[in-house]
Amino acid sequence: MPVPEHFDFFVDPNRCIGCQACVQACAECDTHKGRPMIHLEYVERSTSTQTVPVICMHCDSPTCAEVCPADAIKKTGDGVVQSARKPRCIACNNCVIACPFGVPKMQSDFELMMKCDMCYDRTSVGKRPMCATVCPSGALFYGTREQVEQLRPRSRPINTFQFGHQTITTKVNMMVPAGPGGTPGSSSAEYVDVTSAMHDESAAGGSGKRVRLNVLEDSLFQFESDAVEEPDDAATTT
């Protein structure tokens, strides 16, 4: 049974509270051998404890699968990019290097690339992914676009990302500020320009530079009133 076409995954960095509930829930999946396939990144570790959940974005044209010499990574007909298949994965790390979102991780003790497969055992039978089920703040939401737009009127989902001249569309949506007026259709941005959102800063003492992604930082806390919305539970009951 395929993942319902009208159900999407939404990541809202404004809502992540760093509780690690998603990480713990993911690790409890029977197929993960105790390894979480989601992790949290710090937006600016030196100055803030703000975190962002990182999951597989399930690209329409997954680079990880395209560079795999062993044909170990498959994308299902419903758009979910599966984790590497053990019988075929040769632990070459090509997928780890190629992913623009930095998602796949090589599990050296298993000699296997493992990543989020959107809880395919659950979503393919109408249930929500484990991480979205336990997230207390709604930073991870699984449901329809109409539901999320109703719940988050000051944000809008975007699933197109620009890396220089490369455009990547994904099955997973990133929630960004809606723009002036607060209505989903008021923002002119049709994609997240990842390259333009990065900038160099001189490191302390002028000994080097660091590159920082500020697109998420700019959006964080922009609409503080969003944070008081009730966590959603409008998706399919698990």
UniProtKB/TrEMBL annotation:
Coiled coil: none annotated. Residues 7-37, 47-78, 79-109 form the 4Fe-4S ferredoxin-type domain. CDD domains: DMSOR_beta_like (cd16369). The keyword Chloroplast does not apply. It comes from the Bacteria. InterPro entries: 4Fe4S_Fe-S-bd, 4Fe4S_Fe_S_CS, ET_IronSulfur_Cluster-Binding. It holds the Pfam family Fer4_11. Gene3D superfamilies: 3.30.70.20. Keywords: 4Fe-4S, Iron, Iron-sulfur, Metal-binding. PANTHER family: PROTEIN NRFC (PTHR43177), PROTEIN NRFC HOMOLOG (PTHR43177:SF3). This is 4Fe-4S dicluster domain-containing protein.
